[in-house]
Backbone:
């Protein structure tokens, strides 16, 4: 019985992981960073989970950004949150309308690499 109150506090006070939610991509900052608008009008900056793309001025950076834009800009997507990064971006898996992930699509196109830090 001594442990019951502490278990109660753990289950009540520790927030559960966020559940997947939907939104519309309103900006592609670069190949691995998006801005998604939620139904209430709030905008959320998202860092794609598990991949890294070249930056804009690096070789293939513009192609990565353009491809992410073609695949996701204006699309209604599903966001599966993982965590927050040091820049307070939401790190998440992004599901495209066809059911594939944006991460896998960029990897398949050769415009991203697996990056376990994010």
Residues:
């Amino acid at each position: 019985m001594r442990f019951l109150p502490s278990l109660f506090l753990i289950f009540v006070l520790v927030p559960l992981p966020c559940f997947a939610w939907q939104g519309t991509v309103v900006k592609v900052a670069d190949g691995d960073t998006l801005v998604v608008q939620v139904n209430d009008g709030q905008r959320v900056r998202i860092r794609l989970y598990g991949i890294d793309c070249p930056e804009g001025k690096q070789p293939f950076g513009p192609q990565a950004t353009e491809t992410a834009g073609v695949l996701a800009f204006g699309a209604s997507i599903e966001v599966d949150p993982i965590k927050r990064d040091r820049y307070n971006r939401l790190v998440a898996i992004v599901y495209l309308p066809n059911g594939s992930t944006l991460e896998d699509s960029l990897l398949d196109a050769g415009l991203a690499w697996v990056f376990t830090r994010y």
Q: What stands out?
A: Residues 1-17 have pLDDT under 50 and may be disordered. The radius of gyration is 17 Å. The longest strand covers residues 21-30. Helices lie at 4-13, 61-72, 102-108.
